[in-house]
Design goal:
It is globular, with a radius of gyration of 23 Å. By secondary structure, the protein is mostly helical. The chain is 76% helix and 0% strand. It has 14 helices and no strands.
Length: 347
């Protein structure tokens, strides 16, 4: 009974408080963004970003609070992105968003993320996502401004590349550590005495690899949530492309073992689906009846799959492998159609 009626722990309370603080800070950033014409609002966003990044460093170095430090650093990068976007956004409105404003937003997140990466102690690799996404947005905004390219096409293509490259993330995380296994090249290597193993070093490398994998997975999730509306703006093929990306991200969690890695992958895929759904309802009013039926049907299927009893099955695991493979193989053809490359070739 004591195990079933587990009490509320202080750690859970702190995580809940951090989540609530993040939501309130996001609403505050949205409130400032609405006032983008005000110089005072731009200065306030920049000052809040500086205060949050400095606070994250103090929490990490002085208070030994790595989880809170990473969360506050993420908030700081978000406010820095908002400050950059507000600074570069023209007074006419959001029509010229995909250009210098997009690059300025990415530059703000990139600068704040780099400061946090240098200043934080434990858990600094978890600040990688806003840095990578900020750099991608800088490149996409500059490409749209200088090369006269469609930012939606550039960022959607980048999203597909990142999702396809996600299969090598575990190998990348292990390769970034110092632990390695000696290769066997001859019969003498089999019988040779192995080198001494340092358990502390192996444990430290395992934790580093875990943080890198979580950070890279969060990068894909963040990019998926932010770029999904741009993919939806490309039409039916772009919407299907975004949905397949979300499906691949969710299915890829079968390769992970720790709860944090699985949680990040599932949350990334679900938030990506939410971003696609909201974008469809906002950008394509004519699709709303079909979208309502599709959302209700998908929810019913997931509910039935959750409630029906099922035991672990090798067959379902293989079906998951097949579904992930089909999704990965379909991304490139969908990208060709969504970006208009197929129509350009045919025309």
């Amino acid at each position: 009974v004591e195990r079933d009626l587990k009490p509320w722990s202080p750690e859970t309370g702190r995580r809940t408080a951090l989540s609530a603080a993040g939501l309130l800070m996001a609403l505050g950033a949205l409130a400032l963004l609405i006032q983008h014409e005000s110089a005072v609002a731009v200065a306030a966003a920049a000052l809040i970003a500086v205060a949050l990044v400095v606070g994250a460093i103090v929490l990490s170095r002085g208070q030994d609070e790595p989880d809170a430090a990473v969360a506050v650093a993420w908030m700081g990068t978000g406010y820095a992105a908002v400050a950059g976007l507000m600074w570069a956004l023209p007074s006419e409105g959001y029509d010229e968003l995909f250009g210098v404003p997009l690059a300025a937003a990415g530059g703000g997140a990139l600068a704040a993320g780099l400061v946090a990466l240098v200043g934080l102690g434990e858990g600094r690799t978890l600040v990688i996502p806003p840095i990578v996404v900020g750099a991608i947005f800088v490149a996409g905004g500059l490409a749209a401004e200088q090369l006269d390219l469609d930012a939606a096409v550039v960022l959607t293509s980048t999203l597909v590349f990142v999702v396809v490259a996600g299969s090598v993330f575990p190998w990348l995380a292990l390769g970034a550590t110092g632990t390695n296994v000696d290769q066997l090249f001859s019969v003498a290597d089999i019988s040779a005495d192995p080198d001494d193993i340092d358990p502390e070093q192996v444990g430290a490398d395992a934790r580093t690899a875990h943080e890198i994998l979580v950070g890279v997975s969060a990068t894909v999730g963040l990019l998926l949530v932010l770029v999904a509306p741009l993919a939806v703006s490309l039409g039916v093929s772009g919407t299907v492309l975004a949905l397949v990306c979300c499906l691949v991200v969710v299915l890829r969690t079968r390769q992970y073992r720790t709860g944090a890695e699985v949680l990040v992958g599932l949350v990334s895929g679900l938030l990506g689906l939410l971003s696609v759904g909201v974008s469809v309802l906002w950008l394509h009013p004519d699709w709303r009846p079909v979208a309502a039926v599709a959302l209700a049907a998908t929810g019913s299927v997931l509910l039935a799959a959750t409630l029906l009893p099922a035991s672990p099955s090798v067959r379902r695991g293989r079906l998951g492998d097949v579904a992930e493979t089909i999704g990965l193989l379909s991304l490139l053809p969908l990208l060709v159609v969504a970006t208009g490359l197929l129509a350009a070739v045919q025309g």
